[in-house]
Amino acid sequence: MEPKEAKQSTELSELGEGQSSPDSKATSPESKRANETKQLTELSEPAAEKNLTDLTKLQGKWTRQLNNQRWVKEIVGDKETFAIFVDGKAVYGHTHTVKLSKRGSVCIYATSAGQITIGERKGEAMKPFSFIYKLNDDSLIESLGFLDKANNLRDKTEIVTWKRSTALSLADREPEPEPKGSIVLWRVGSPHRGDTPPELVPGYLEALAKKQGHAVTVRSFEAKNFHKVFWAAVEKHAEPDLLEADNGAIVGMSANNYTMDTKLGTFTGIAAKEIIRKSLIDMRGFGGMYHLINTSRNHAKARTLATRVTEPELPPSARESIPELAPNEKAAVSKLCIDAFTDSITGDDSSIKAMADDFDSLPQRLWGDRVSGVKVGKVKAFGVSGTDRLALGLVTATVDTPSKDDRMAQLGQTRTLFIFRREHEGEWKLIATRGVGGHEPWIWDMLRDLRNAKPQEQESVTIETPKLLSPPDGARRSRLQMPDIAWVGGGDDAVKYVVEAQWGSRGTDQWYLSNFDVFSKKAIEQGENGVIKMRAPFGAGAQPHRWRVWAIGPHGETALSQWRRIDFSN
């Protein structure tokens, strides 16, 4: 029987023109590999030029259909990403680096060791492999199983043909057929990195679609010239139902600014065309840059993803040491939260003004951008907790906002925090609000370890109103060295402090988006005469900020200081 090494050497020699077969008995594996490396690296100038030309032609996406499987390989530079899809879902994938070479007149496609990225074996290493290839403009032919057995992708010989997914002119690209009724998601890479996202449905989106009985099909693109691809698809009524962009430049940075320059070139946003701009809907509450296209074939299905209302459970850490409101108080605070939210979106501020402790202390952003015709869908208050002195609640709702001037229409879920205080048997008063992404830990820190007052303690605790000391009101400071802030007050019964800050616009009296930093009194060092001093925990850009301090007692008694302003110079 012929030794394995001799047989492999004979196979190699048959591939090259004028190559002599090495002595199988005298050739060790190490010298054999060295000889092959020499063959691969010592190329003539025409061969090296051929390899570079082929690698350039290979750039982009290639596909093949095998029964119910769709195979996709994406080549960017010398990196290849491979995936197999069944019914629009990725079931296997791997990545590796590609190196092209020639052995005589035979073109060789070789890979480095790679890694499995999708499927049951995700995370496992892949050994290198190689095969013979032939490349035309729109087809790639792979001859598998004709090279060294150790480097074969499979044992049997097979001819595989791939078709180029993206035509030479992106604007002339023919849309690929999509599974009937499937929500089509297009993912677009970064104009800074030049990457192409994997053709995978993000986990949370996949789970949501599955829950609603929808299938999702994914296509991925690089940012370069994507606007041409999108515009051409719209003309053929082949636009996606859902678009995920890595960067705002894919859509358009802002109104009347639809181009962006990076080291990779100039990128034009798809919204530069008015007809496209009017069709886009900003999808809120997904933690990414998603847009619906209202002219797409499955727009009605895709909208259902944006109009769901989710009620995330409190994380275990948030449940610890958080006081519970009595049922009647919880119901009262819940109603106040819902009324305040609805009024902020569709009302005239009358409800908020009636319940506000100080209306001018509330951030204007909550209702400053009202649009005529906005619709509020499902509304629910959850996480409502607190004591009989201090309570908070989160409102989650779906909001459908039509376009206004050059601002895009919006659809999706939003969450807003409302915080109330009450003195003795008085009414609940709204003292603060802000939009939030979910259950941020600091929300619950305000209530942690507080307790409801006993009847005999109704007037036993008095919290001193904090007095701000420095910086002086209207001070101008640099953020390169954040300023210290100082105050006194709270008294012996204060158990924690909250520093609330809002940022504003120069030349206006409007203040936006409160931020809260909660500090336990035990963790704060008090100086002489009870002065509390710390580095300012706020400062979002070169713009004015205003800040105040809350002192909170053991039952949620809350005293609020006056506001002071700081103008940051950078």
Describe the structure.
With 570 residues, this protein is an alpha+beta fold. It has 5 domains: 4-42, no CATH class; 46-164, Lipocalin; 170-306, D-Maltodextrin-Binding Protein, domain 2, CATH 3.40.190; 315-452, Roll (Nuclear Transport Factor 2, Chain: A); 454-570, Immunoglobulin-like, CATH 2.60.40.10. It is built from 11 helices and 30 strands. The strands form 5 sheets. Strands 11, 12, 13, 16, 17, 18, 19, 20 and 21 form a 9-stranded mixed beta sheet that branches. It has an 8-stranded antiparallel beta barrel with strand order 1-2-3-4-5-8-9-10. Strand 16 (280-284) and strand 17 form a beta hairpin. It is elongated, with a radius of gyration of 32 Å. The termini are far apart.
List the helices and strands and how they pair.
Layout: H1 4-15, H2 29-41, H3 45-58, E1 60-66, E2 69-76, E3 79-86, E4 89-103, E5 106-111, E6 114-118, E7 125-126, E8 130-135, E9 139-144, E10 158-164, E11 183-188, H4 203-211, E12 216-221, H5 226-235, E13 242-245, E14 259-262, E15 265-268, H6 274-279, E16 280-284, E17 289-293, H7 299-306, H8 316-319, H9 327-346, H10 350-355, E18 375-386, E19 390-401, E20 409-421, E21 429-436, H11 441-445, E22 467-470, E23 475-477, E24 484-488, E25 496-504, E26 511-520, E27 532-535, E28 544-552, E29 558-560, E30 564-568
Write out key terms for the chains shown.
570 residues; alpha+beta; Lipocalin; D-Maltodextrin-Binding Protein, domain 2; 5 domains; 11 helices; 30 strands; 35% strand; elongated
